[in-house]
Fold this sequence. Notes:
The chain is α/β, with parallel strands linked by helices. It has a single domain (10-309), classed as Rossmann fold (3-Layer(aba) Sandwich), CATH 3.40.50.1820. The protein is built from 9 helices and 8 strands. Strands 1-2-4-3-5-6-7-8 form an 8-stranded mixed beta sheet, sandwiched between helices. The protein is globular and about 55 Å long.
Amino acid sequence: MRHYPLSPELAAFVERTLSFSSADSSFKGLRDNYSRMCRAFAPPRPDGLRVSDFSLAGVPARAYCPTRPMPADGWPCLLYLHGGGWVVGDLDSHDFITAYLAAQLQVLVIAVDYRLAPEQPFPAAFDDCLAAWRALQAGASPFALDKRRQLVIGDSAGGNLAAALCLALRDAGEPPPAAQALLYPGLGGSADLPSRRQCSDAPLLGSSDLDSYHALYLPGPEQRSPYARPLLADDFAGLPPAFIALAQFDPLRDDGELYHQRLLAAGGDSRLYPGLGLVHGCLRARGLAPEVDALYEALLDYLRACLTNL
Length: 310
């Protein structure tokens, strides 16, 4: 493995994350081990939230609603789509960020527990996220929502699903989210992108890991749907404003960079956060590494500006 110049704090986070290993290579073993790692990094939930599980169009979901009175126009809402290579992750694995966003922004956050590969490959996860969004728009939730202030956010595979959701709504002529926030997203870039080679053995996600996840989510002949691989879209016009956070030491780095450039070339609005010194999966290191805290500050600033200016 080549040397990646991480800060001591982030290097310690990577080492601790890698300490969670299991001899059980089954998908159940993989998921159980991932859940064990997630629990080890999970901080206590912030006060001032009502947390409830429900379903949207048959898709399990979890709501984080501030205990303050509902705004007159209804709740601003973030739909959160979790990462995990489309193979691991659930409502608990990303509670650390969904609860935090709800408390910091004082908005409703709804997390989606979409179906996982390989048992349910593409388009199952995409279909679930789209169905959940449409159910929210149809009023099929226990919450009154502010129609102008609804955003979608996702990390890694969740960033893929968030971008695909925006493309699908644009293509269907339906109102899109007010903004899309994509955190080190995997957007289906080609295998010869420079970051694939430069970060082939990067901490926490290498190029071979990426290939394995793709093979599980997109089995069979090469998938050419932009809803599976958003960078394959022919047209990037008419998409919501974007905040795209990269991780410097990540084989997916160039996916986010390319998506940013294509949004700008199509006349869209996109803000790129370069993520210097970061690795894939670093969101879990909030409070442990200053460069990760800086990413959160930039994300919160962007989301606050979106919610305020709409």
